[in-house]
Write a structure and sequence with these properties.
- The chain has 130 residues and is of the alpha+beta class.
- It has one domain (9-127): Roll (Thiol Ester Dehydrase, Chain A).
- It is globular.
- A hairpin with a 2-residue loop joins strand 4 (92-101) and strand 5 (104-117).
- It has a five-stranded antiparallel β-sheet.
- 23% of the residues lie in helices and 42% in strands.
Length: 130
């Protein structure tokens, strides 16, 4: 991995369609952005943040989330998530994450990811099938 520095950021965006609604993904019955979709966008922002620093057979995996979904977003609105790298402890990376729609903040929290070797990680995961 190339040298990481605290303070780098990444972002991810989407426009809320029927596919991202709580009623569609099974996380509720309302036609608003589903919490799991907001979290996915936050994770994607964290991945985008460090993607330029990964080399060869490296990737990161999500290991922890502590997120609050504080405001509902209806279908048709654009949502943007931003992740900022706030801590580096060996292979553990900690991000401050937030998400906003056109009306303001809709979610915030902390997300942790861990640097792994893809081949070794997948070998270990696939070994569970035997």
């Amino acid at each position: 991995m190339k040298q990481l520095e605290k303070g780098i950021t990444g972002s991810a965006e989407l426009t809320v369609t029927k596919n991202e609604l709580a009623s569609a993904v099974g996380s509720g019955c309302l036609d608003v952005l589903a919490t799991p979709v907001m979290i996915m966008l936050m994770e994607k922002a964290a991945c985008e943040c460090i993607a330029p620093y990964l080399e060869g057979d490296e990737t990161t995996v999500g290991t922890a989330l502590d997120v609050k979904h504080i405001s509902a977003t209806p279908e048709g609105m654009r949502v943007k998530a931003v992740a900022e790298l706030v801590s580096i402890d060996g292979r553990e990376l900690v991000f401050s994450v937030n998400a906003e729609d056109g009306s303001g903040l809709i979610g915030k929290g902390v997300h942790k990811r861990f640097l792994v070797n893809i081949r070794r990680f997948m070998e270990k995961a696939n070994a569970k099938k035997h």
